[in-house]
UniProtKB/TrEMBL annotation:
Name of the protein this chain belongs to: Cellulose synthase-like protein D4
Positions of UDP-alpha-D-glucose binding: S379, K385, E386, D415, K605
Subcellular location: Golgi apparatus membrane
GO molecular function: cellulose synthase (UDP-forming) activity
Regions crossing the membrane: 898-921, 933-954, 1026-1046, 1058-1077, 1089-1109
UniProt source species: Trapa natans
UniProt function note: Thought to be a Golgi-localized beta-glycan synthase that polymerize the backbones of noncellulosic polysaccharides (hemicelluloses) of plant cell wall.
Swiss-Prot/TrEMBL keywords: Cell wall biogenesis/degradation, Glycosyltransferase, Golgi apparatus, Membrane, Transferase, Transmembrane, Transmembrane helix
Annotated Mn(2+) binding sites: K606, D630
One GO term (biological process): cell wall organization
Length: 1127
């Protein structure tokens, strides 16, 4: 797709277009589409915009006078390189952009509002929005001087005259003289980069027709000298390292001398080591497991054949229902069990990853990382349901992840557009100034502050620094204050808004008095929500208003933490709470995003929000890999991202679409009553699928390859087998990426953003493994990703605002082929299925220390509603074109069975609920599913049961699941199958057949009484209609057992065999429903035990009384009283 980048980015600098909406273009005409026109302005107290320019401004005719805007002159771009002071201009632009709140959307102008402050407290870290430098030395100017990554003043002239960004640009425009020394500004580069690194990100080699004057492709380093390394790569020359870069061995002295033989070795000179390896299950476990699977399958076939040819003539209806259910259960067991035939374990080598990508070498003396970038996505929608403090802790765990700082970019999607979330994220970014270096200094785990300070273990374990206890005590105090600030934000925002609204009301009253208006006239002032800098919040207001409601607000983008420098920035002990003198204090890039929402548009819930993040991140950071997390799932293992990289950067990793991590949960009761941990699925089914084509995508804790999420097919590496040397290092053209893709139809697939289209081949190229082994046929040259990233530009941020607008996806393939797939409640499973269906494979990464941890509902009702949502999504998949029956040949057979099971398993509830009633029907009727309990039936039943138990034991062995967890999973399978799964099937059938949508919601709620008990929610009884089927099943089976027992005792010819058969299966049903019954009882001790004892006695007494009044046929009343005998 090199031709995708043939057209340079069009970034216009025409002030005459300031009043024209840049998006009023034909969505299909990307070639003629202009760049983003950015309005830099400051909002007044009433929410209006006033220009920041010092020049005379012309007021646009169609905009009121208070909206005085001007078009910013876009600084250095690949097509317009400045001749002087490029580094200073770029830094000034980046600082100005990172301190601005960008808003825009459909039929509106993209504006950048300079934020004087985002939180009430002082901002300390120089990367954070709102950080300030010294005051400008120009007279009558109160602007702040530009700062570097350490927060030090940047003076563009040798005389060190302090000047702000606006005054500097004005001086450059007027005469190019420094206002201090009156001398021309010199071209001073303040980067400390080594000469072998370019000061711009290395792009793809120029394709056919690409402008050769593009500065991003010039083969010169930052000193203007010829860069031989880059020339080798871009001219397809021989790429390698040797003695030209490092002295020979004999130059380092003889053996036994002081020299180091060979000196510093390059990665290509070291023995090649794999980054990951597959660990097969021991043959002593997997071989009997497969044999038992085959034996049980054969026995099931013979058993079903015997059941069909031996009907129960006395109760054909009972026999018929049981046979149909048993056939379906056998089919469902095959779908679930057969894909487990080849489970695998995997291991990673983090040391080999470090040696290959992060070690210093002759070509990389400063040890810059060659790892690809990672964009981390966190989604939240409602701060009332998802507490901002929980989200803030998740963000802090991401910002402190053990991965090259300059390679990480964190994005938070606030789908509710709430100021509370915005300011909570700003507080988190401010607190990260202390927390992240603290984690690096003392190697803290976990790096979620709440989880870390709540640990029960000894915090001093494995800590070697003498100042750890003192630092930890200070950090604990700071975190407690941080929690107080975040928890106080709702009241703070409310009080602030009330004060500003009262001020506006007083202003209006004063204006009415001065104008002589009627004093009795009602004063109407909009109840706005105000930001900390005294301006209107552009998102959702507490009191909804036009353009400020949950489903009606503009797009918002704020760079909370600007991109860090490419080299470490060590802290100091001055003016800092903790001594960070030998710790890197840089923070990863952090961006707040709230996509535009308008009435009449389908925003597609979470899937739409994730796709908006994909597009915005492609323009701002374009990380080749993306990690998505729920707001309550934090990074528990700081090396989790590196663990995932071991798979995608290893040989053969080019066809991995995503790396799925298991979900682990906290706050679950020790007995795991409702199988919330779901370990059978995460440690059993997912490991088994890892041996086929890969695990399914489960919605969180998954690291995607950006290129695969764009809807492309995996690379055909066999095409490069006969290629010439270094051909695998070249970018692909459009036909290689997708034979069906026409470059002229790119806007139809991805939208009309030129920057987004240009980022696609770069993301694909940077995501390839290193071409450091002859077997790597689809790699990239080492050292490509060591160059620093480009600074932020206004045009790029404005383009990111445009791609999160509500109209952008119209007439494109977003949600259909590209990105997260729309149309299902379980968009995660569908998204992973589409990738597997195109031939990609995925990998399951189980780390020794849990990679991520989150929360799960422990209340019965909440758990049932969670399962209901999953099952509803599966039913939608079954009735859609995502059904695995319609999959392509690229989906492997066992993988197809697994996806078939995903869509079919809810329908098992129909047969399961019938089968749960069969024991009761058998007991009531006096019949059984077979004519008699003969030896053949019992032998078959015994073999099937023994095989099931042995399979469970062996599965526990190779998966590591505890036997109790397996039993809890079996219990909840029946509970959910008779409640939530059945409701999902009914809901899906009504939707497909009649177009009727039914939502099963809570009808009553009760609050936890004991706030000190972390498991208090476990005992809450929240009534829901989903509880009716299990209650009915339990009651009918209990009554049937009592009825049949009494009838058998008082019968003249007791049929104990039929009673035992029916009673055995009734007890089997009741045993599975035991956790459900405990959930209905609530907290232990609330319901006295005597109540249940008396209830049982009353039920038995009533049954005996009924038998005495209406005895069975063939008996008399005398026999009831005098013919009683124990069996």
């Amino acid at each position: 797709m090199a031709s995708v980048s043939n057209q340079p980015s069009k970034k216009k600098r025409n002030p005459g277009n300031s009043g024209q909406h840049p998006h009023h273009q034909n969505s299909g005409d990307s070639g003629s589409r202009g760049g983003q026109t950015v309005k830099f302005a400051r909002r007044t107290s009433s929410g209006r915009y006033v220009s920041l320019s010092r020049e005379d401004l012309d007021v646009s005719g169609d905009i009121p006078g208070d909206y005085m805007n001007y078009t910013v002159h876009i600084p250095s771009t690949p097509d317009n390189q400045p001749t002087d002071s490029s580094s200073v201009a770029a830094k000034a632009e980046e600082q100005y952009v990172s301190n601005s709140l960008f808003t825009g959307g459909f039929n509106s102008v993209t504006r950048a509002h300079l934020m004087d402050k985002v939180i009430d407290n002082e901002v300390r870290h120089p990367q954070m929005v709102g950080s300030k430098g010294s005051i400008c030395a120009m007279s009558a100017c109160d602007g702040n001087v530009m700062t570097d990554e350490r927060g030090q003043d940047v003076t563009p002239c040798d005389c060190r005259f302090r000047i702000c960004r606006d005054c500097y640009l004005d001086a450059q425009k007027e005469n190019g003289l420094c206002p201090g020394c009156k001398e021309p500004y010199k071209s001073v580069d303040y980067d400390d980069d080594d000469v072998e690194y370019s000061n711009r990100t290395l792009q793809l080699p120029p394709g056919e027709g690409r402008n050769s004057n593009n500065m991003t492709m010039m083969r010169r380093n930052q000193n203007g000298e010829f860069d031989h390394n880059r020339w080798l790569f871009e001219t397809q020359g021989t790429y390698g390292y040797g003695s030209a870069f490092w002295p020979q061995e004999d130059m380092y002295g003889e053996d036994g001398g002081d020299g180091i033989p060979g000196g510093m070795m390059d990665a290509s000179d070291k023995p090649w080591k794999p980054l990951s390896r597959t660990l097969p299950i021991p043959a002593g476990i997997i071989s009997p497991y497969r044999l038992l699977m085959l034996v049980r399958l054969v026995v099931l076939v013979f058993f079903l054949q015997w059941r069909i040819v031996h009907p129960n003539e006395d109760a054909v209806w009972l026999w018929g229902m049981s046979v149909v259910c048993e056939v379906w259960f056998a089919f469902s067991w095959v779908l679930d069990q057969v894909p487990k035939i080849h489970p695998v374990n995997r291991a990673t080598d983090l040391q080999a990853l470090h040696d290959k990508f992060d070690m210093p070498s002759p070509s990389n003396p400063t040890a810059r990382s060659d790892l690809p970038g990672v964009d981390v996505f966190v989604s939240t929608a409602d701060p009332e349901k998802e507490p901002p403090l929980v989200t803030a802790n998740t963000i802090l765990s991401i910002l402190s992840v053990d991965y090259p700082v300059e390679k990480v970019a964190c994005y938070i999607s606030d789908d509710g557009g709430a100021l509370l979330t915005f300011e909570a994220m700003a507080e988190a970014a401010s607190f990260a100034d202390l927390w992240v270096p603290f984690c690096r200094k003392h190697d803290i785990e976990p790096r979620n502050p709440e989880s870390y300070f709540c640990m029960k273990t000894d915090p001093t374990k494995n800590k070697s620094r003498s100042d750890f206890v003192k630092d930890r005590r200070k950090m604990k105090r700071e975190y407690d204050e941080f929690k107080v600030r975040v928890n106080a934000l709702p009241d703070s925002i409310r009080r602030r808004s009330e004060a500003f609204n009262a001020r506006e009301e007083m202003k209006k009253v004063k204006h009415m008095r001065e104008s002589g208006a009627d004093p009795l006239e009602t004063i109407k002032v909009q109840k706005a929500t105000w930001m900390a800098d005294g301006t209107h919040w552009p998102g959702t207001w507490a009191v909804s208003a036009p353009d400020h409601a949950k489903g009606d607000h503009s797009g918002i983008l704020q760079v909370m933490l600007k991109p860090p420098s490419c080299d470490p920035v060590m802290g100091n002990s001055e003016d800092v709470l903790i001594d960070y003198s030998d710790v890197d204090i840089r923070l990863p890039m952090f961006v707040y995003v709230s996509r535009e929402k308008r009435p009449g548009y389908d925003h597609n819930k979470k899937a739409g929000a994730m796709n908006a993040l994909v597009r915005a991140s492609a323009i701002l950071s374009n990380g080749p890999f993306m990690l998505n997390l729920d707001c309550d799932h934090y990074i528990y293992n700081c090396k989790a991202v590196r663990e995932g990289m071991c798979f995608v950067m290893d040989r053969g990793g080019e066809d991995i679409c995503y790396v799925q991590f298991p979900q682990r949960f906290e706050g679950i009761d020790p007995s795991d009553r409702y199988a919330n941990r779901n370990t059978v699925f995460f440690d059993g089914n997912m490991r088994a699928l890892d041996g086929v084509q890969g695990p399914v995508y489960v919605g969180t804790g998954c690291m995607f390859r950006r290129f695969a999420l764009y809807g492309f097919n995996p690379p055909q590496t066999e095409k490069f087998e006969t290629a010439k040397n270094d051909s695998e290092m070249q970018p692909l053209n459009a036909s290689d990426l997708d034979p069906d893709l026409d470059v002229h139809l790119l806007p139809k697939r991805f939208g009309n953003s030129t920057m987004l289209a240009e980022s696609i081949p770069i993301a694909e190229f940077h995501a390839r493994p290193l071409a450091d082994h002859p077997a790597v046929k689809f790699g990239r040259p080492p050292g490509l990703l060591r160059a620093p990233r480009d600074p932020l530009e206004a045009a790029a941020v404005a383009e990111a605002v445009s791609v999160i607008s509500c109209w952008y996806e119209d007439k494109t393939e977003w949600g259909d082929r590209v990105g997260w797939i729309y149309g299902s409640v379980t968009e995660d499973v569908v998204t992973g299925y589409r990738m597997h269906n195109r031939g990609w494979r995925s990998v399951y990464c189980v780390t020794k220390r849990d990679a991520f941890r989150g929360s799960a509902p422990i209340n019965l009702t909440d758990r049932l509603h969670q399962v209901l949502r999953w099952a509803t999504g599966s039913v939608e998949i079954f009735f859609s074109r995502n059904n695995a029956f319609l999959a392509s040949r690229k989906l492997k057979a066992l993988q197809r069975l697994a996806y078939l099971n995903v869509g079919i398993y809810p329908f098992t509830s129909i047969f399961l609920i019938v089968y749960c009633f069969l024991p009761a029907l058998s007991l009531f009727s006096g019949q059984f599913i077979v004519q008699t309990l003969n030896i053949t039936f019992l032998v078959y039943l015994l073999i099937i049961t023994v095989c099931l138990i042995m399979l469970a034991i062996l599965e526990v062995k190779w998966s590591g699941v505890a036997l109790e967890e397996w039993w809890r999973n079996e219990q909840f399978w029946l509970i959910s199958g008779t409640s939530a799964h059945l409701a999902a099937v009914v809901q899906g059938l009504l939707k497909v057949i009649a177009g009727i949508e039914i939502s099963f919601t809570l009808t009553s709620k009760s609050a936890a009484e004991d706030e000190d008990d972390i498991y208090a929610d476990l005992y809450l009884v929240k009534w829901t209609s989903l509880m009716i089927p299990p209650i009915v099943i339990a009651m009918i089976n209990i009554i049937a057992i009592v009825w049949a027992f009494a009838r058998t005792i008082y019968s003249s010819v007791p049929a104990w065999s039929k009673f035992i058969g029916g009673a055995f299966f009734s007890f089997w049903v009741l045993a599975h429903l035991y956790p459900f019954a405990k959930g209905l009882m609530g907290r232990r001790g609330k319901t006295p035990t005597i109540v249940f004892v008396w209830s049982g006695l009353i039920a038995i007494t009533l049954s005996l009384l009924y038998m005495a009044i209406s005895p069975p046929k063939g008996t008399t009343t005398e026999s009831v009283g005098g013919g009683f005998q124990f069996p």
